[in-house]
């Protein structure tokens, strides 16, 4: 399975920005659909954003639409999550996830659809 390593988390004030990165070990990264999920203390893991392996399709949970942008660089084997206008309720551990797919445009919104997960990066937004 592909190895995933997240980075870019940290402490930021409300209204600030962070860019998360997820580096994948797999040379066939371009055939993986990718997703970002998050888990806040005492809450279940939730979907944040997803991107198809060709980068042409994306999806976001309602609470981050217009503030977060998912993108990928298949040459660098990296997927990104640009987070703007951060709110205290965005505080969570953010995880990236990957799964292979034969359909270049497919995106996946559920955690159980992903086979590989990173260890996560902490994002803390202060009010």
Largest sheet: 7 strands, mixed
In round numbers, the mean pLDDT is 95
Number of helices: 0
Helix content: under 10%
The shape, in one word, is globular
Calculate the terminal CA-CA distance, rounded to whole Å: 39 Å
Pick out the low-confidence regions: none
> How much strand content do the residues show?
over 45%
- Along the chain, the helix and strand elements come as EEEEEEEEEEE
Structural class: mainly beta
Q: Supply Rg.
A: 13 Å
* Total DSSP E strands: 11
Task: Write up what this structure looks like.
Helices cover 0% and strands 48% of the residues. By secondary structure, the protein is mainly β. The protein starts with a strand and ends with a strand. The chain has strands at 4-7, 10-13, 18-24, 32-39, 46-51, 58-60, 68-73, 78-83, 92-100, 116-117, 121-126. Strands 2, 4, 5, 6, 9, 10 and 11 form a seven-stranded mixed beta sheet that branches.
Structural key phrases:
127 residues; mainly beta; seven-stranded mixed beta sheet; four-stranded antiparallel beta sheet; globular
Which helices and strands, and how do they pair?
Elements: E1 4-7, E2 10-13, E3 18-24, E4 32-39, E5 46-51, E6 58-60, E7 68-73, E8 78-83, E9 92-100, E10 116-117, E11 121-126
């Amino acid at each position: 399975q592909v190895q995933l390593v997240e980075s870019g988390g940290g402490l930021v004030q409300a209204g600030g920005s962070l860019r998360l990165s997820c580096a994948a070990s797999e040379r066939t990264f371009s055939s993986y659909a990718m997703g970002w999920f998050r888990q806040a203390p005492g809450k279940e893991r939730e979907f944040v954003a997803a991107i198809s392996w060709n980068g042409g399709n994306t999806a976001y949970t309602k609470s981050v639409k217009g503030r977060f942008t998912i993108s990928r660089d298949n040459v660098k084997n990296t997927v990104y999550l640009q987070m703007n206008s951060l709110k205290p309720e965005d505080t969570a551990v953010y995880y990236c996830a990957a799964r292979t797919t034969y359909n270049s445009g497919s995106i996946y919104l559920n955690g159980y659809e992903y086979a590989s997960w990173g260890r996560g990066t902490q994002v803390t937004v202060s009010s």
